[in-house]
Amino acid sequence: MTSKERVLMAINHEEPDRVPVCATYVPEIEDKLMAKYHPDGDLGVALGNDMVKIASGLENSFYYKPDPEYLCPYGITWKNISNETGHFTEIHKHPLAGDEQKIYDYTMPDPAKATDVIDATKAAVAAYGKEKWIIGSCQCSVFEAAWYLRGLDTFMMDLAMEEDYAIALLDKVMQYPLQMGHQFIDLGVDMVWLGDDIATQQNMMMSPDMWREHFKPRYAQMFAEFKKHNPNIKLCYHSCGNLQAVVDDLVEIGLDVLNPIQPMAMNPAEFKKRFGKNITMYGTMDVQQIMPFGTPADVRREVKQLITDCAPGGGFILSPAHHIQSDTSVENIEAFYQAARDFGAYPIIK
Fold first, then answer.
1. Distance from C-alpha of 216 to C-alpha of 175, rounded to nearest angstrom
2. How far apart are CA 38 and CA 53, in angstroms?
3. CB–CB of 148/97 below 8 Å?
4. Which residues are bridge partners to 69 per DSSP?
5. Are 319 and 21 contacting, i.e. CB atoms less than 8 angstroms apart?
6. What is the pLDDT of residues 282-311, one digit of tens each?
7. What is the pTM of this model?
8. pLDDT value of residue 64
9. Cα–Cα distance between 296 and 327 in angstroms, integer?
């Protein structure tokens, strides 16, 4: 069975030969794995990923640059910050802070000019499209795009005050993922992946009603247009945190796959019982405690438990609940992939 067939069966809530698996890595981890494995092609594929992902838009603004500060194509100023395990990026200046007129004058990047993404997608489809599940990703799609540009506190107040310019900003920022999604579909991807972090580990960052008023209809429009463009396209949505309050809404508007089912925020076994018949779970593996601080045996034990709890009946793609972070050992990453192979074969043995 090919990876493409395996993932499709899982998303269709059927049981393939084994549980599909995928992981992504921060640059420090990628460098360590590249140095050890010297892959001829995609690193994740060499390690055992069933999926190949190409990213576009704001999602790519997190990538590390050599300068202490850098300006991304959206006009956002970012800073590189170092700590004891590596480095990360954070927003330093929001280009639409202050004068609201800037919102109306602001011009989004043109996805048709994203030649690097277009070329990378063509290359991935050519190299892996027959065997692997190809994902076109454009995360930080609407909510995050708006507050990255405006500032989180300011934009949340804009929404609370129901300011017209906040609505104008949402309508403007959604055009990039909408157009990029159509472009990805034309290039031959199997799944379009959008997303916004809309929750903390405890609950939603806004009321469910506010989400339903401003974000649900925009995602419903994008999902409907993508499905109209290609009825076979699958749709994935990412949000960290506990967003159980709106999972049924996402299912209602056509979502196929939810990522990452952050285990420190939502119990994967309970999530499977509550939502598992209606949506595919993509993630569940803890990157906050077990992957960085556990032993390889701890990793194996957790992978086995997740497969036991979440894999029966399909609808499950095993993945770390975020990029594998810089404080994680190569041994734990290897243990993750090996455990997925050792315990992931159907039928699942408890």
1. 15
2. 19
3. no
4. 79
5. yes
6. 999 999 999 999 999 999 999 999 999 999
7. 0.97
8. 74
9. 14
